[in-house]
Design goal:
Blueprint: H1 17-28, H2 45-60, E1 64-67, E2 73-77, E3 87-92, H3 105-120, E4 129-134, H4 147-153, H5 158-163, H6 172-181, E5 187-188, E6 197-203, H7 208-211, E7 216-222, E8 224-233, E9 237-238, H8 250-266, E10 273-282, E11 288-289, E12 292-301, H9 304-321, E13 326-335, E14 338-339, H10 342-355, E15 359-364, H11 370-373, E16 379-384, H12 400-418
Parallel strand pairs: 1-5, 3-4, 3-6, 6-16, 7-15
Antiparallel strand pairs: 1-2, 2-4, 7-14, 7-16, 8-12, 8-13, 9-11, 10-12
Helix pairs in contact: 1-3, 1-12, 3-12, 8-9, 10-12
């Protein structure tokens, strides 16, 4: 049976909404912040604690946890053919430093809930069905993000990932080895293996679904993204004695560059998203002319041709406007926009209709690990609304009914893959 085949959802096949919510709130207590959010960054002690909790839940349901060399966590509902390509569903457990309770973790717990429901019904699928928590989707501690899915997909090599360091000088290698040491008996999978399909449930992280009163977003694709590290080099000088005409002020050069970037890139069209999200001035002293400015730029657009054009314009503007200073532009992330599998999109829409919740097609403005799975296998995403479109913030919120509906849709889409019968029996 293909992923596009129909599968009526009966009451027997609904997930346990109360259990799903309890588990989300339990994980929200790991790394909880005073403002009600979460600080659970990649490969941190808090993420190790969340692994322990996930593994306990998995083992209690008779599921099989495992990991791989890059620190992705897998939980399997065993199939009859253990060598057949499995179906994957999940997202990530790490958060932004002041993130919310649902970003990423919802997709992982929803996938675990679906597997738990299937296990309780005695389902033995033809092939394994896996819940996955990808390592370092956010990139807040170790940049850039999506390390786990990129390593799995062969987009980035493990050696370069392990060499990356955080702001405190801790390497991914050190943190990853500590994670694995905390779970010495956990089965180790190969890094990357054939996959039959991939599904990811997630909060929208935008206002569209809520504004249009839709419970389910059928994600058509993800807009493209480029990130850049820019270093503007000037010369340090005494603020009281160096004449203005003689200065090579890196901050002054930055102001010219930033104004041009906002005007000629940020206002290119209504679809562009341009952000200067990090700024560091050196020596950052009140009476010293700045000698260096380092900034990080995030540029997004759904049209790959426009994204490429704007990326080149960015580099040209930085170099042409830096004088008498110099500017060095280093590309970090180059992720083209992608589409998702049409048959899986149709299956998601049918599932939403069957369980009686309104749905609509939607483009993802944020990046997700599903981006890297789409070239490997049929892939799709299921969005649910978040209040006021807020994400990456402590007051991020999703309604319990929407949380349950998204997991029910995920379950319904997976039923044909696990060989569930129309009469509600495995």
């Amino acid at each position: 049976m293909t992923a596009a085949a129909a599968s009526p959802v009966q009451d027997a096949w609904r997930i346990d909404a109360d259990r799903l919510w309890r588990r989300l709130m339990a994980l929200a207590r790991i790394g909880a912040t005073p403002g009600g959010g979460v600080d659970r960054q990649a490969l941190s002690a808090e993420e190790v604690a969340s692994w322990r909790t996930m593994i306990e839940w998995a083992l209690s349901a008779g599921l099989e946890p495992s990991t791989d060399a890059v620190g992705n966590l897998f939980i399997a509902l065993p199939g009859t053919d253990r060598d057949a390509p499995p179906v994957l569903a999940g997202s990530h457990l790490d958060s932004q430093p002041g993130g919310g309770r649902f970003d990423g973790v919802y997709g992982v717990v929803a996938a675990l809930e679906v597997l738990t429901t299937l296990a309780e019904r005695g389902v033995r699928p033809p092939a394994d069905v896996l819940c996955v928590a990808w390592m370092n989707e956010e990139g807040s501690r170790f940049a850039p993000g999506m390390m786990g899915s990129e390593a799995f997909a062969g987009v980035r090599d493990l050696a370069s990932i392990r060499a990356t360091r955080d702001a405190d000088g801790v390497s991914v290698a050190e943190a990853l080895d500590a994670l694995h040491a905390a779970f010495p008996t956990l089965r180790r999978r190969p890094l990357g293996f054939p996959v039959a399909a991939y599904l990811e449930a997630h909060i929208e992280q935008g206002p569209v679904l809520e504004a249009r009163q839709r419970t389910i977003g059928v994600v058509t694709g993800i807009q493209g993204k480029k990130t850049f590290d820019i270093v503007i080099e000037g010369e340090r000088g005494h603020a009281g004695t160096l004449a203005m005409a003689d200065r090579r002020d890196a901050l002054e050069a930055f102001t010219r560059i930033a104004a041009a970037l906002y005007e000629r890139i940020g206002r290119h069209d209504e679809a562009v998203k341009f952000t200067i999200g990090r700024l560091q001035v050196e020596p950052n002293a009140p009476s010293v002319v700045p000698e260096r400015v380092t900034l990080r730029i995030d540029l997004r657009h759904p049209d790959n041709a426009v994204l490429g054009q704007l990326g080149q314009r960015l580099a040209d503007l930085c170099e042409s406007l830096a004088a008498p200073c110099s500017a060095r532009v280093t590309p970090l992330v180059d992720a083209p926009s992608n589409g998702f599998d049409p048959a899986l999109q149709q299956a998601i829409a049918r599932a939403a209709a069957r369980i009686g919740v309104p749905h609509m097609p939607i483009l993802s403005a944020a990046g997700h690990d599903a981006r890297h799975m789409a070239p490997l296998c049929p892939s799709a995403m299921i969005f649910i609304p978040c209040r006021d479109g807020v994400s990456h913030a402590e007051h991020e919120w999703a309604e319990p009914a929407h949380v349950a509906a998204g997991a029910d849709v995920l379950l319904d889409v997976l039923l044909p893959w696990v060989g569930a019968g129309k009469d509600g029996t495995p």
